[in-house]
Amino acid sequence: MKVIATNEAPAAIGPYSQGIVVNNLFFSSGQIPLTTEGVMISSDIKEQTHQVFRNLQAVLKEAGASLETVVKATVFIKNMDDFAAINEIYGEYFSVHKPARSCVEVARLPKDALIEIEVVALVK
After folding, report:
1. Cα 2–38–15 angle (5° rounding)?
2. Which of 88, 2, 86, 74 is nearest to 31 (CA)?
3. Over 90: is that where the pLDDT of 119 sits?
4. Which of these, 52, 64, 79, 120, is most buried using a 10 Å CB contact count?
5. What is the set of active-site residues?
6. pTM higher than 0.70 for the full model?
7. Are the CB atoms for 55 and 68 separated by under 8 Å?
8. Spatial distance between the Cα atoms of 30 and 69, rounded to a whole number of angstroms
9. How far apart are CA 114 and CA 105, in angstroms?
10. What are phi and psi of 50, to 5 degrees?
């Protein structure tokens, strides 16, 4: 196993890593809309979703993967009423390549984020 750590994404806020590579698979921890300094961005769901994708891109790059090699995404959202707005942004990042996905409404996310996404990707 190889632990993935990059300064281009927020540090873990608990006893976990940003991700792990096992053989040719990368498993990310859930990314929430924190900046690299660990500051939560605005409460706008679209801005939060873009920040989550910036964080995912950073950990994927560090692992030797990319959005194009993601095979599964799990999306956790605070409010299912935000589904359409999230889908719009999600579609900007996964426009041609469309990995398998689950989307679940949850009661609460770390730091009261509105969205969290984790991915599994192939390492190049």
Report:
1. 45
2. 74
3. yes
4. 52
5. 103
6. yes
7. no
8. 17
9. 10
10. -60, -40
User: How is the beta sheet containing 100-105 ordered, strand by strand?
Assistant: 2-4, 19-22, 25-28, 115-122, 70-77, 100-105
Question: Which among 73, 95, 86 is positioned nearest to 113, based on CA atoms?
Answer: 86
Question: Residue 75: which of 46, 112, 49, 42 has the closest Cα?
Answer: 49
What is the DSSP pairing of strand 115-122 with strand 19-22?
unpaired
Q: Residue 82 and residue 61: Cα distance in Å, rounded?
A: 28
Q: 64-117 pLDDT, tens per residue?
A: 999 999 999 999 999 999 999 999 999 999 999 999 999 999 999 999 999 999
Mean confidence (pLDDT) of the chain: 97
The residues, any chain, with a CB within 8 Å of residue 44's CB and separated by 6 or more, are none
Q: Report residue 101: phi and psi, to 5°.
A: -150, 145
